[in-house]
Amino acid sequence: MDILAHIRLLAHYNQWMNDKVYEAAGKLDAAALEADRGAFFGSVLGTLNHIMVGDTIWLKRLGTHPADHRSLDVVRRAERPSSLDQILYRDLALLLLQRKALDATIIAWTGELTEPDLDHALEYHNMKGVPQRKRFGSLVLNLFNHQTHHRGQATTLLAQASLDVGVTDLLALIPDEQTPRSA
């Protein structure tokens, strides 16, 4: 299995799913978007903001890799969110614009990654300031796992509001393999 190909697939899956989730969320009025539905981050809007916060925090950390991936320059210059529940944007349209830009950055960044990059031990500090040292490749996979986890919550909240985002399986983007011809 080509791990870089899989990481790039996850980047495209992230973009595809975000497009679907935001399209469904766009059918809710402001009050419904902000209604506390009992999720980790309360509302649909709170959950979508949290995914953006988490992506920004993780990409800022991942952007300290010595390979200095140029596509992350924009993230390195961005302000670091102050908390995991920070509301970056109350306006869904503004959040969507930032989401699309960040998704394009993620796709460009995964295109820059190399296999040796994945083996690097990255040092960073968690939100409490505690030093960490973990394998970069595992942290990249964590970025995508975190997105998927919270997008699953968002799709549940949208379903509770009678909105269907459609197919959500990564399987929909995995290319079919050609059957080998017998000789």
Topology:
Elements: H1 3-25, H2 30-34, H3 44-62, H4 73-77, H5 92-112, H6 115-118, E1 121-125, E2 131-135, H7 136-160
Antiparallel strand pairs: 1-2
| β-sheet strand percentage | 5-15%
- The unreliable regions are none
Total tally of structural domains = 1
What is the count of β-strands? 2
* Shape descriptor: globular
SSE string, helix = H, strand = E?
HHHHHHEEH
Question: Any idea what the CATH architecture is?
Answer: Up-down Bundle
Which radius of gyration do the C-alpha atoms yield? 17 Å
Order of strands, widest sheet: 1-2
Provide a descriptive summary of the structure in words.
This protein is mostly helical and 183 residues long. The protein has a single domain, classed as Four Helix Bundle (Hemerythrin (Met), subunit A), CATH 1.20.120. The chain contains seven helices and two strands; from the N terminus they run ααααααββα. It has helices at 3-25, 30-34, 44-62, 73-77, 92-112, 115-118, 136-160, and strands spanning 121-125, 131-135. The protein has a two-stranded antiparallel ribbon with strand order 1-2. A hairpin with a 5-residue loop joins strand 1 and strand 2 (131-135). Helix 1 packs antiparallel against helix 5 (92-112), helix 1 packs parallel to helix 7 (136-160) and helix 3 (44-62) packs antiparallel against helix 7 (136-160). The chain starts with a helix and ends in a 23-residue tail after the last helix. The mean pLDDT is 96.
